[in-house]
Amino acid sequence: MAGVQEIDVVVAHRERATVRVGDVFLKIDADPARTDVEVEAMAMAPVPTPEVLWRKPPVLALAALPGRALGRLGEPSTASATAWAAAGAAVRTLHDAPLPPWPGRSIDELAAQLDGECEWLVTNGVLPADLVTRNRQIAEAALRPWTPVFTHGDLQIAHVFADGDEITGVLDWSEACRGDALFDLATLTLGHEEHLGDVVTGYGTDVDLDVIRAWWSLRSLLAIRWLVEHGFDPSSPGCEVDVLRARM
Length: 248
Prior knowledge:
10 strands; globular; three-stranded antiparallel sheet; Aminoglycoside 3'-phosphotransferase, Chain: A, domain 2; five-stranded antiparallel sheet
């Protein structure tokens, strides 16, 4: 059809899909509650977020952010150390903001989910038992009381955009909630341990690095079944399985 721009499928699975048409991203989500959270969280967040162009459930239209993502899991990041530090500073700004009205997962919920996922990984032969057991032990350090902050909840490096050394925006807020600050820092640096120091420098306060490493194990253990069932490969180089192996 004349005048129709090329459509780029950014991500697609059974729960949601995102396509890009020119400078517009169309997010299609089967669960309108996730979109409710995303729109409200972006309105509350004290960091740059995409402009909401329009919403007609199940579709949310967002303007493209300037710049490019800090990187992707499983690939080397070409972003500068200064950009990574700026990302840490942006996360600190978010964590210092007033709490969102909706809660996150409790420690008991996380522990129960972790037990179930570890059992599934071993029972189905997805990962060696010793790899699961070791990372389950490491993950225990994350399951401790924390002071809730405004967390993004899915702060993958692909969701943080920079133009040069400046952070231009953060995407995908549907998992935003009250949560552990170190979970966001761990998600941002998952698979990119070499930039943890830059992020912590930008964050500007002492953090428990052992807890961040515990969240790397915990997040990876929790994610693998979902990734497999939705057509992704967590065993790709540099991804979740390699993150777990690096802890051995």
